[in-house]
Amino acid sequence: MGTPDSTPWQDHPARALVRLQDEPPVWGYRELRLRRYGAADHAAVLALHREGLAQVGLRPGDGVYYDHDFFRMEDIYLRNDGEFLVGELDGRIVAMGGLRRADLVPGGRARAYGGYAPGAPALDAVEMVRLRVRPAVQRRGYGTAVVQALEQRAAEYGYRVLRADTTELQGPALALYAKFGWTETRRETIGGIVNIYIEKHLR
Asked: Which neighbouring-strand residues pair with 184?
């Protein structure tokens, strides 16, 4: 994605993602502030998640939709070598995304029914999940900023590979991952919806 002066976004000073604080991590991207999730963010984050899935027609009971991880944020994301970031604009959460160990939550059809297990000692694969941007502020580069920040965190933790899955319905998410060099590994149809699995090697 280029700016009007044709300078690539990552080289343009006004569009650069800037690390403002190491721990807990904080970044700035234009007017957006990215920071770690806190318990007080729960209602806003859950609402943003549900709004994002409703936008593409995903709903409870379709075999793909699930939100039980939002009720175990600390266990699944923040206490197990993961991360969850929220993006604030004028004091409101408008973007988010997380990293969770790939061995913590089941995949495929089983994922929609819950489940959680302690991870193995070695860090290997991590999932990038819950990437959402409020519809009213999409196409401003906020999703790009979240992906870039989460990739930084995954590298800092020492993960070998990033994984994610999305559906055919979520074209903008697929395009965003492709821009960052993710590749498709397989497809699976769940409840009539095509789930697309992708990954990116970090080392």
From this structure: 198
Q: Could you tell me if 15 and 9 are in contact, meaning their C-beta atoms sit under 8 angstroms apart?
A: yes
In this structure, what token pair is assigned to residue 62?
A: 């379709």
Read off the tokens for 112.
């929609």
pLDDT tens-digit series, residues 86-145 = 999 999 999 999 999 987 665 555 555 555 555 555 678 999 999 999 999 999 999 999
Distance CA 144, CA 19 (A): 15
Residue where the block lists tokens 């904080």? 26
Checking if the pLDDT of 85 tops 70, the result is yes
Distance CA 156, CA 200 (A): 15
Torsion of CA 199, 3, 20, 87, to 10 degrees: -60
Within 10 A of 21 (CB to CB), how many other CB atoms are there? 11
Instruction: Tell me how long the chain is.
Output: 203
| E strand or H helix at 150 | helix 142-157
